[in-house]
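ok so heres the complex, two chains, lmk if somethin looks off
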Amino acid sequence: MENEKVIVDMMRSGHMACPGCGVVIAMRLVLRALGKKTVAVIIPSCSSIIASTYPNTSLKVPAFHGTFESAAPTAAGISYVLKLQGKDDISVVAFAGDGGTFDIGLQALSGTVDRNEHYIYVCLDNEAYMNTGIQASSATPECAWTITTPSGRPFRKKNIMEIVAAHRIPYAATASIGYPQDLMDKVKKARNIQGTKFLHILTPCATGWRMAEGLTVKAAMLSVETRLFPLYEVFDGRRYVITYEPQGFPIDEYLQMQGRYGHLTQDQIANMQTQIEVEWENLRNKVKDCQC
Amino acid sequence: MRELLTGNYAIAEAVRLAKAQLIPAYPITPQTPIYEKLSEMEAQGTLPGIMVRVESEHSAMAMCISASLTGARVFTATSSQGLALMHEMLHYASGNRVPVVMGCVNRVLAVPWSFGSDQTDTLAQRDTGWMQFYCEDNQEAFDTVIQAYKISEIVMLPSMVIIDAFFSSHFIEPMEVPDQVAVDRFLPKAALPERFDIENPTFVSNVVTTGSQFMPFRKRGFDDMENAKTVIKKVDKEFEEHFGRRYGMVEAVQTEDAQLVLVTSGSMTSTARVAVDSLRNKGLKIGLLKIKTFRPFPSGEIKSALQGVAKVAVVDRNISLGNEGIFCQELKSSLYNSDIRPPVYGFIAGLDGLDVSPDTLEGIAMEVMGKDEPNDLPVWIGGS
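and the predicted structre for the whole thing:
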């Protein structure tokens, strides 16, 4: 019998993640919450080299490595057939990076959410194309250094949660590796909801953020506590719920621990702080507006 | 039952009778009526499978692949730009050894934008590891879909069943549609491996890191594609036992005593049959070789058919810029190392569905009969 108190990890150690990888923590937590009755879809991303390479795999659940832009329809295809086979108790989860979600896979993701296909999409967001060696994506924050934005990215980070919510998706949530219980609770909630579920997990990347390996979880926690990456849920694209009340620390410490922000001026930092406050107010208004 | 069907509807009927379980589809002219007909069947409750109206051909093939790996018989159809968009996933399908069957209606690739038939769209997918069957008429399209499921599920490589835009896709022909019982007898319910077993978890389509790991996968695909020739012939023979029709990988018509053999594929073959009859009536020893199976390429069958033939003229409704017609290239290359090496005359005709009439083909035959040696470059019928 399944014992909730016993932790069973569906990932093995010895995988190929960089030291201090945030993605691997997120994958482990998601799979721990989902358990054995899971089929995973991996696409080219950090998660693909973490999950394999031949003849090994770190995953203890059956998995398929799909193509970069097709995590969503690949997962949906498996889900349709499992249903035809009467295997309704098996969850299908797609792991995609920020490039595979915000950029090249956005069209396909939109398609599956539109059709409300039954699976869980997990975006492991490390805010750049880290697997190919730190190139900017549309998830890279404004001003952040990458190798392809040497003087900082000139555009603001795309708001993927609003895009997904606009589809009236049954369930979307942000989650953080700094708050594992909140993350796993959201995964378990997602598992029991019919249709498409979307989880946006910020996964700090020591390598790409130019940060010491031991700071990954601290960076994740600070991203939440500064309200840069608040933890919330959206039901049916309309009803917003904040799942953790952040303390509202200033952004400075979060930025100072990351070499990718080393070039920021005081003005840029002040501007970032203002934007965080505006976005936080927007989110709180959505929570208030949707007490319906 | 005797029915009047377009090529597109013939394919849709075959997909229904083959009991495809999942059909991700996306519209593109001139394939769209396949999608529409299957949707109508689904709405009427006569389609055994479910349809998914995806947002691109790329996603259609992604879904076909993962659904097939999960254990379902699947189908999709496309043309031209849609097939080009799918290109990445075509390699992915054959590499993952999924028996996907896809209807392809040959349509010219832009630019300029147009709609007529041109085989360059499917021939450009030559190296994706799919079997390719070019069908002459609507009956053959229907029969080939049924055969393709059986072949693909034995070989574990995907198949394209290919017809010409409008000439086949939209033209109505009388044909025989067998009933479900007869089709079930020939093509039983799919029994595909279910690759995602939670009791025995494996990682499908893993990342390899060296050529020494990669090459054995490709070699195995290569060997299985070669072995597919035997499977294709066996399934064709079985099909004949069930339904009284067979096609062969190639069909040789009056080639035994021929001084010149015309080589065609697709719907142009029907026209060539008329042209050859007419030329024979005029006392000219002209034969016809129809190439139906393009991948795997039927080199052995072609050599047998061309034994003792003085000249060959290949008429291609496609062009590889920088070289010549693609059937012509392939045919020449299959003969080069053999002792059967008649001069091969290449012709480019009928691109974008330009009519290739019996007169056109007779003209080609007469031109070749009067020549001593072929040009290096193909002769264009039209185009200037």
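quick notes: Chain A has one domain: 22-289. thats all i got rn
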